[in-house]
Amino acid sequence: MALLYALSVAGQSLLTYQSAINVTNKNISNAFSEGYSREEPVIADLPAKSGSYIQSIRRLTSKITFGRLIEVNQEAEGLNNYKDIVTQTEDVFNELSGSGFGEALNEFFASLNDISVNPEDTSARYEAISKAKSVAGRIKQSYSFLSDIKDKTTLGVKDSVDNINRLTDKLAKINDNLKFFYNSNPDRYNEYLDERDRTLKELSSLVDTKVAFHDDGTVDVSTAKGFALVLQTQSKALSFETDGNNNPVIRWSGTDITKEFKDGKLGGYIKGINLINDTITKLNNFTTEFATAINNQQQAGFDLNGNPGTALFVDENGGPIVDASNITVGFEDPELIAASSDATFPDSNNENIKAMIALEDTKIAGLGDKTFSEYYTSEIVTPIGTEANRTENMIATTTEIRDSLEQQLNEISAVNTDEEFINLTKFQRAYQASAKVVSVTDELIQTVLNMVQ
Amino acid sequence: MRIADISLFNIFTKYDNTRQKELERYNLEAASGKKILKPSDDIVNFARGQRYRKMNRQLETYLRNSTLVLNKLDTAESTMGTIVNSAQAVRVKTVQVMNTGVITEDQAQALKDYFIKMKDYIVNQANISIGETHLFGGVKSQTAPFTSDGIYQGETTETTASVSKGVELNTTFNGAEYMGVNYTNGKILIVDVIDEIVNAIDTGNIENLGDLTINVDIDNSGTSTPMKLLDAFDTGLSKIMTHHSKIGSQIATLNDLKSQNESLKLKFTNLVSEIEDADFSEVISNLQKSQTAYQALLGAISGTKDLSLLNFIK
């Protein structure tokens, strides 16, 4: 073998290990980069005793684990965002911290009792008006809080849709680049694969999707029900609008697909809005039944002046239906409380106020044959508490699975610096050895040249 | 199994978060004294607590009503006791007069004054009020139920208030019944008899007092029966005494219910406390356990974070 050829082999080897050191350097640099998949130089010997070369730079990952992680991440993010809304809703009715209107309701009925003992007592009547205002105020406040949570969540849905559109557009561009760098530039190709996986993970935190992987690394993404979001290098944007009740409507090519989303932040938000809508419906139902029952009784009696009673709870806008959005107290004058069932004795008869008090324990047909307080506790507060509890448990399980999958993926993909330092030392030694070969060959050539002198 | 550097830090972050959450929870429990901080902490016990709280609120109302009703019953009972005592004194005097026979004019005037004063006293007592509420006028409680002649002008309908579930006691009374009104003329029967005695004194007919009669309808039957004055007086007094006992019985019932309601309230308060209040020894123990676990975690992080081959590569 010619000495110059030996020099050429050693030079090739130096370049190979320099590249290997570069790969190790890249790995060490990205030891704490989220979503980075470590790379491994595959060094092979060149045929015909011509030294070594980097056959490929292998990107270490697991498509199966990653695919599973995407699915679990969708579920976990959906649950987490749903839990945020459930918790906010629960706070609206957390009697234990002083919110909600259960205690105010009890106090309202208790205040009527004082009138029953002394119907002519104006101070007892003032107290009852004050408690009625408290119940109405708290109901309206609960409604206002719920509406506010819903409005903010609807805005969250809009932001999520914008983000989904941004990410699907980005994925389409990544697909384009993957096609371009496939087989031509493994280094850049791997970088785009990392970016693809990071984007897919981010997308999975927003929406439940199905991902189809192709051999060239490109992906097609669709909603769980098959509405395509990314097809090769084309992306399809979702549109957002709201209906008359400020409910979000998400359209794909004009088709309303709002109900399709179950997981991811978007699915969590939509489930949360459904819960709020359900709670508002029950709150309105409660309010209407409560106001109607009290008003009917009030109108069956006579006030302190002997006049027929007027509605205690009214729509602040003057409408015929009293609900949680508009409930207010119809009069300030305590003498207008119709405690008497006999116009002749408006200041001593207490039969009507006793009938009103009895409503506290009356099962109301419109509330599923439940009393007011029981309906409030078992139909409004309990379902929210149960949902919060259930979601919390599911989050614990799903998060544990997600952490485990991430751990598994990290075992394969993430960087261990000790390992990289060992590789670095290994490549350094190989580089030093090749350099030594260059040095020795150089000496040999020098010796040969000296022989010529 | 490879352990990536980032995994170690992920584990530290995860468990640091877990321990801090635990510490926050136990600190909250210790600070608030509650183990249920929101409905979802224990939904079943939350609902139970709400129901007990409502029952407690009702019991508080009953107890407040009981105090007010008891005040009215006590006043009514004491008033009727006074009327009974006065009536018994009048009866003794009446019997004396009947047994005396002929009396002088001065004695007659003194007797007449005595009977009129006793009558006024009885009528005034029957018109007793608490504030502006007359107890013996039934639902018509804002005006005096009896005229100065003892004629009933109140209502027969009474007012009641709840003092326990399903138990209502009087806050006003039907004076016609409680004061033993003679439905023949609407006047309190014992007052009616006193009027007859005064009339006999005025007409000088006192020696025939034992033979005088009065038409009596004490049961509102619509039929009057002639009765001798003393018999009529006894009938009226007997009716007052019967109703006096009835009020006494209501007071006894009320006191019984009151102590029962107080006991129930205490029981429900304890139940709510058992359901919602934190067990401090348990909370503090848990808090200390969490603190120890947190310290162990920080120790583990501190001991592991600097371990690297880098320290040995020259």
Describe the structure.
The complex is a heterodimer of chains A (453) and B (314). By secondary structure, chain A is of the alpha+beta class. Helices cover 61% and strands 11% of the residues of chain A. In chain A, helix 2 (63-92) packs parallel to helix 6 (264-300). Chain A starts with a helix and ends with a helix. Chain B has a two-stranded antiparallel ribbon. A two-stranded antiparallel ribbon of chain B has the order 3-4. In chain B, a hairpin with an 8-residue loop joins strand 7 (213-216) and strand 8 (225-228). Chain B is rod-shaped. The model of chain B has no long low-confidence stretch (mean pLDDT 92).
The structure class of chain B reads mainly alpha
Query: What is the tally of beta strands of chain A?
Result: 11
Secondary structure tally: strands of chain B: 8
Order of H and E elements of chain A: HEEHHHHEEEEEEEHEEHHH
Separation of termini of chain A?
Answer: 23 Å
The average pLDDT score of chain A comes to 93
Order of helices and strands of chain B: HHHEEEEHEEHEEHH
Beta-strand percent range of chain A: 5-15%
* Largest sheet strand order of chain B: 1-2
Give the low-confidence spans of chain B: none
Helix content of chain B: 55-70%
Report the mean per-residue pLDDT of chain B as an integer.
92
CATH class descriptor name of the largest domain in chain B:
Mainly Alpha
Number of domains of chain B: 2
